[in-house]
Each structure stands twice: as C-alpha cells, then as structure tokens.
Amino acid sequence: MKAEAIALPRLPARLWPWAAIALGLLLLILVPGIVGTYQTQLLTYGLVMAIAALGFNLLLGYTGLLSFGHSAYFGVGAYTVAFLLQYFGIRSMELYILLGVPVAALVSAILGYVCVRHTRIFFGILTLALSQVLWSLALKFFWVTGGSDGLRVSRPTLLAGTLEFTGSGSFQRFIFSYYYYVLAVFVIAAAVMWVIVHSPFGKALQAIRDNETRARFVGLRVRRFRWAAFLLSGTFTGLAGILWVPLNGLTTPDILYWPFSGEIVFLTLLGGFRNFTGPIVGGIVFTYIKTYAVATTEYWQLLLGAVLVILVLALPTGIVGGLAQLAKRLRAT
Amino acid sequence: MSLLQTVELRKRFGATRACEGLNFSVERGEFLSLVGSNGAGKTTLVNLITAHVRPDSGRILFEDRDITGFSVTARIKAGIARSFQIVNLFDAMSVFDNIALSVFVRDGKTAKIAALADADIDVRRETRELLAEFGLAAKSDLPAGELAQGERKLLDVAVAYALRPKLLLLDEPTSGVSSAEKAQIMDTVSAVVRAGAVTAVVIEHDMDVVFRYSDRILMMHEGAFLADGPPEAIRANEAVTSILLGLPPV
Amino acid sequence: MSILIIQLLNSLFYASVLFLIAAGLSLIFGVMRIVNLAHGSLFGVGAYVAAWLVGRAVNFGVPPIWLLLLIPVAASAVAVLGMIIEPLLLRPFYRRAEEYQLLVTFGLLLILEDLVRLVWGGLPLSADTVMDSMPIVHIGGLLYPGYNIFVIGVGVVAALALWFGIYRTKFGVLLRATSQDRRMASALGLDVGRVYIAAFAIGCFLAGLGGAIVVPSHSAVLGMGVEALVLAFVVVVVGGLGSLKGALVGALIVSLVRTAGIQFFPEVELAVLYLIAALVLIARPTGLFGTA
User: Most exposed of B36, B230, C1, C143 (fewest Cβ within 10 Å)?
Assistant: First the structure.
C-alpha cells in the first residue's frame, strides 16, 4: 500500500539537489539564532572538518588515492597560525588565511611530489611516514613548537581587524561571529571544490581513478594530475587547520599524529566518498558523534571503533550513499 | 611516404622472442589486419608502436619521423591511438564522459580547472556526434561499467577514435562477443574509420571478420612476418592458413 | 668499549622486539594481502596480558624463573584473540577494496586501544620482577641485565623457527602457495580459509610475543601499540613487505639507527627514522627484499 504521507512539491528531479542545498544553507544560516553558543561552536567545528574532508576526498573519491597522512596538512595550517601569532604577533584572521594557505600548499606540493610516485598501499604508507616526520619534529623541537604542550592561539580579529573579541561576553560574540565567518569560508571552499571536480581537470582525475592505464593511453600525464590533486587536497585540508586553531585556542602535536589522519578517513567514509556532499555530511556528523561519544563515555575510542566497523560492514557507501540508495528504492515503489 | 614504418624492430622477454627484426610499413588509409596464433607477437608489436613497451633494438618511423624515443603521450600527440584487448574503460564515468575525456585531452583542455566540463559546447557537440557514429547515443548517460560487453568493446574503440588519430591500433575489438555482435561491431568500426580516413591496424583472430573488412592482412608467427597481402592473396595461401589456424583447406 | 657493547646489545634487544612485530605484520600481508593497522595494538595487548599474568603470579609467590613461561602464554592469548578477529572482522572484506580493509583494521585499533584501558585502566602496568629471572651480566666494568640478552635469544630463536616453519615444513609450503597465488591454491584444493586464519593467528602470536618480552623492560602503557605500529611500518618498508629476511634486516637497521640517533641527535631521532622509511619508499618501494 503506497502511503502518500507528505505532499511533496512537484519539482523536476534535476532541481531536487539544489533545493536541498538551498534548504541546508538556510538552516545553517539560521542555526546560531536558534541554538545556544555551545551548539554553534560544535557546528563550527563540524564545518571545519567538512572543509578538511572535502579536500581529502578530492584525493580519495575523485583521484582514487587513499592518504593516511592528511593530518600533516591540517597540522601545518594550524601550526602556521600559531607561529604567526607567537613569532610575528599577527592577529588578523585574514592574514592567517592569506599566509597560511600558501604554506600548506607548499608543503603539499613537496610531500605530494614524493608521494605520487607510488600507488595503493605504498602511497598510503608513504603519506603516513611523512606525516609522522612532521609530528616528530613538532614534538621534539619543543622550544619552537611548544612540544607536547603545544602553542596557544588567542582569538583573532576578523574582517581586517574591525571585529575584536575582548571583554565580557566576548566568548559568545566570538563564537557567533566566527561561526558565520567559517560558514562563509566553507561555502566558498565548497563552491570552489564543486567547480574543480566538475571541470575538465576533475574529469581527468576521475578517469585516472577509474583506469590509470587507459588514462595514460588517452594522453593524460597521470603523475602530474595526481600531484596537482594532491596539492589541492592538502591546501584545502590546511585551510581547515587554519580555521580550526582559533576555535580550539590551542594546537598540539596530536593533530599531526597519524590516528588523526585515520579520523579524517573515517569521517569521509562516514558521509560517503563516492559523491560530493558525502564528506560534508561526514565531517559534520562525525564531529557530533565524537563529541557525544567523548561526553558519554570514557571509552569513546571503543565506541568510535565499533561505529567504524559497523559502518564499513553495513553502509560502505556512507550516509549520503545510503540515503541515495534509499531514495532510489522509494522512487521505484 | 608511408604513415608508419618499422625498421628491424626487436623485442625479447627473457627467452621469448616476441618480435624478431620486424620490417613493415602501413600506408595511409589502409585497413590492415594483424593475424597469427596466440603468442605470435601481435600485441607486443602494438605495444611497441604505442610505447607501452620499449624495443630492444630497431626504429619506428611515423610520417618519416623517428618516434622510437617518444613517450606514450608524445605518440598520442603525433597521432597514434589504441584500444585494448581486455576492455579498458572508465567504468564509474558515464559513456558520454568517457568519450568527452578524449576530446578534452586532444584539445588540450584538461588543465582547465575553473570551468565546468559540461559547459564546453564544442566538446559536447563533438561527443554527441561520436556517440551517434558509434551507435551509443542511447546509452550516453549510463556508467560505462553497466554496458553490455559488445557495447563496451565499441566504446573502447570510440574512446581511442575520439582522439582523432592518424593511426588507430585496435587489439581484438571483437573478442568476447557473439558472432552476430562481431559483425555489428566491425560494421560500425570500419564504417567510422573509413569515413574518417583513419588508418587502422586491427589485431583479430576471427578470420571471417578479417577477410570481410581488411584491405591487407599481415600474418605473424613466432615474432616474424609470415605472409603479407590482400585477402585474396592470403586466402590463396591456404597452406599457411590451414596449418596455422586449423581451418579446413579452402 | 664496554659502552659500545652495551649500545650494541640494546640495539639487538630493540631489534628483537621490532623483528617480532614486523615479522607478524609481514606474514599477514604476505599471505593475506592485508595491512593490519591494529597490529601494533595486538602488540600492546600482549604486553598488558603478560604484565597482568606476571602480577597475578607474583602474588602467588611464583619464583621469577617460572615467570618466563608466562611469556608464551600471553602470546598465545593474543593468537586466540586473532582467531576470533579474523572470521568476524576480516573475512567479510577479502573480496572488497583495499580501502575498506584498512578502515576496518583502523576501527579494530580504536577498539583494542580502549579495550585495554577498560580492562587494565590508564596506569602503566609493569612486570619488572621478570627481569630478576636472569642474572646480571658484567660487561667490562658495567652491569647489564641478563634478561635483555635473553630477549635477543628469543628473537634469534623466533627468526630460526619462522624460517624453518615457512621454508621447511609442509605447512610453510601451504603458506607460501597461498601467498603467491590464492586462487590457484584454492583451485588445487587448499582450504584457503584455514590457511588465512592460521597465518593471522601466527602473526598475532608474534605481535603478542613482542609485547610480552618487552614488558619486563618497558612497562605497558596506553598508546604503545599506536607508536609501535608506525615503527613496524618503517621496518617492513625498509626490509620489504612480505619478506621474513626483510623484517630481520629492517629491524636491525631501524634499531641501529634509533640507538645511534638517541645517542647523537636525540631531537631528530624519530624524524630520521620516518625519513629513512620515506627515502626507502621513494628509492625502492618494495624495500630491500620485498615482493611488490
């Protein structure tokens, strides 16, 4: 018996995704007005991880390379901000982004040049090993990096110094403003990534992912494209790190440690790596899952591990993939 | 001037002599079939011409230019393209995108990162034309992995053809499909190829196909050429064919 | 001079432990083509189980020399754990993409790390009583724990036993056949499933053994598995994934570099190790003795 529970507006199928995005964006804009400071802060973290995941998935979902070392670029972004504050007294968020993104890009370019000479498991291990090099440097050179204690980062100024957050009630104001700041960056970043993956360049990446041999015999310089994808991927994840550290107030070597790379992989898979919005959903949902896991039980790693295993067993296409399959089945009935 | 010429081309894999001092040339516009039993060296020859494999010695000339040192990309730029015996497609991408990619690469547009692929009208138009020529228009939006085997073989050829090469090398374009489909595939392929005035070298095992479509047949055996000539001449060389291919004497 | 010998012995001690972990990792990869990200955590479980058993035994007044028997017991416990893990978590993924295998073993890592904390708490667990099972040795004018030399001995015996088992026994033939061509082996009537579970159990035993023999010297702490995994990776990268000889040589090289590093440039000692791994991967991705 078909149930006509909700009268859905008659939209052509093509417009549905855009309607959903518009709705989602509207919700995101309204959130701080509806929920409290804590929830807003949480969602900001979620958006940051969504940006990191978008970057990561350019490499995994679109180019077919699984990196287990993306913590390196996130960490480079975060530590660059910390250094800019610590050693140059810079407090402008715009400068953090303007100076931090090229640094992340440079590191991605160098490490990527080395890593893309290999594929599959060796690529993964190489990315892991190189991220560990950075981790060990951050840990050991404590007089520069603050060692295991890390470096503190105070609230930056937004919009070219026009917004400062000091004094009473400044935390709430900061969270409120920073949320919209990050949201704006997120929308721009997502739009840029969307264009990238739908461009001829993006098609070339997908071809390389699907069939490296054929891609080469169609005339694509495989290694060059992989390197370019790696560069873009690391830069996006570095941007996420830059946005993360003012929110967190502190950066430590933990975000360079390889299990954090594993988290990035986890959350991308949680959302689904075979489509564009999967990583966004994964980044946000994972942030919530992890926060509530940590708040609920001391053994949140166990919980997350179990979630991951169940996810890979039961829902390999992730949340978005699973929803897409469900939608297909509903439309067929 | 021949389109392609090989001079004393040699390749060994360990003790196996895949190609022994091969000398031959292909003229523009020819539809040449390369035949021979398994292990005769046909695929190795194609691999050598397309730079999948490097020769031990010898030269390859294309339009009188020595391309022996050219990389895969350089040879494609020069005008050589190939399809594969075991179908090699971009399975997760649509049929449309499979062909469009070749067009993008050929036009040097793959570095474009700030423009939408679907917005390129010229590429879309040409892709649609190619789809129509190859009879794949109806399946345009399907992922390549979902096509039937015969269609996949056609698409494999189309992806190579979309590069608008001067020389098209096809490795067993009809293998793995039913006899009825074989004729369909070869009808399409030969029609497109001749209409485009593209020179074709086709590795093929099915002698019916070979005799029906080829201008010229080149037979290889154990790394060397055994016979070379138009179908009538080869057919007349019945001793060769019946011994090597187990056909009843013509 | 005596200091040099002691440094050398320390290197060999460390190499023994690394070898056990790396050999297990390599064996599992060689036979099953799985990179087990939880392998280090199994090493950690071995350490904790051993330390816990030793603690119980000491309470019962068992003399130190008998405590040594608990080492293989702890290792076997990890092997049993492996025999539960393989059919539950790994078998569903053999036919699936490599990415999923990595993820499920990463999930297993998270689970094991917290399981250890759940069972044994957050404080380090030590088993130094076992050190008393072996007499102190005099080297030059310096004192050196005989236990460390015992560990080196265990490493040597393990290497020989593995070599013998893989290259001289019928089971070893089965292992090698399966690792070289799984489908062919299966077509020949080999029960690949049984070979897989056995290989995984042996790999887990080796990891657990590594943990059990190191814990008298270095207490079991949380996160030791995560750290160990990366080092094991460095070893197999240098030596070659899937190669027993590679695990041995890799362990020796990594150990020597680490000891020299701690001595001469402690800040970058870790970084140097990972850099070496990276360099080897760049120059010779299959490692010194690896099969791709």
Answer: C1
Set of chain C residues whose Cβ sits within 8 Å of the Cβ of A129: 230, 233-234, 237, 274, 277-278, 281
A217, B82: Cβ pair inside 8 Å? yes
Task: Share the mean pLDDT of chain A.
Answer: 90
* pLDDT for position B247: 55
* Amino acid symbol at A56: F
Chains that touch C (3 or more CB pairs under 8 A): A
Percentage of the residues of chain A whose pLDDT score is greater than 70: 95
What fold is seen in the domain C2-283?
A: ABC transporter involved in vitamin B12 uptake, BtuC (1.10.3470)
Which of A58, A60, A203 is the mutation pick for testing B, counting most B CBs within 10 A? Answer: A203
In chain B (250 residues long), the average pLDDT of successive 10-residue segments reads: 87 81 88 85 90 90 91 92 92 94 92 88 94 92 92 94 94 87 89 90 87 88 83 75 56
- In this prediction the ipTM stands at 0.87
Look at the alpha carbons of A158, A159, A161, A165 in this order and tell me if their dihedral is positive or negative. negative
Chain segment A231-282, per-residue pLDDT in tens: 999 999 999 999 999 999 999 999 999 999 999 999 999 999 989 999 999 9
Q: Where are chain C's structural domains?
A: 2-283
Q: Choose the closest CB to A219 out of B73, B88, B98.
A: B73
CB contact under 8 A, A214 and B116: no
Nearest to A299 among C114, C274, C285 (CB): C114
* C108·A302 Cβ contact <8 A: no
The two tokens of residue B147 are: 């096509």
What amino acid occupies position C244?
A: L
Q: Using a CB–CB cutoff of 8 Å, tell me whether C140 touches chain A.
A: no
